[in-house]
Specification:
The protein is mainly alpha-helical. It has a domain at about 1-25. The protein has helices spanning about 1-25, 40-50, 75-80. The termini are far apart.
Length: about 80
């Protein structure tokens, strides 16, 4: 039983490897003609050019939340009397 499982896994792995090799063979190897492509100098300049970093806007200050306390009615009346 275990042998059948191992053979099935090996078969699956071999099929996957075969499919990968087939895809490699059928990939296009067409090169870009010189007229359409970049020169070595142009490519190296593009690589070495610093990319303009887009600065994120500064974070907005957090709005302060005011805590609301509810006092019992007695406290409110006592405070008013003071």
């Amino acid at each position: 039983m275990q042998g059948a499982i191992l053979l099935a896994k090996e078969n699956k792995d071999l099929r996957a490897a075969n499919e990968k090799q087939k895809q490699k063979r059928t990939r296009s190897r067409r090169q870009i003609p010189t007229e359409e492509g970049l020169s070595v100098l142009e490519a190296s300049q593009l690589i070495t050019e610093p990319v303009e970093a887009v600065e994120a806007p500064p974070p907005r200050p957090a709005e302060k939340a005011f805590a609301t306390f509810t006092a019992p009615n007695e406290s409110i009346t006592n405070m008013r009397a003071m």
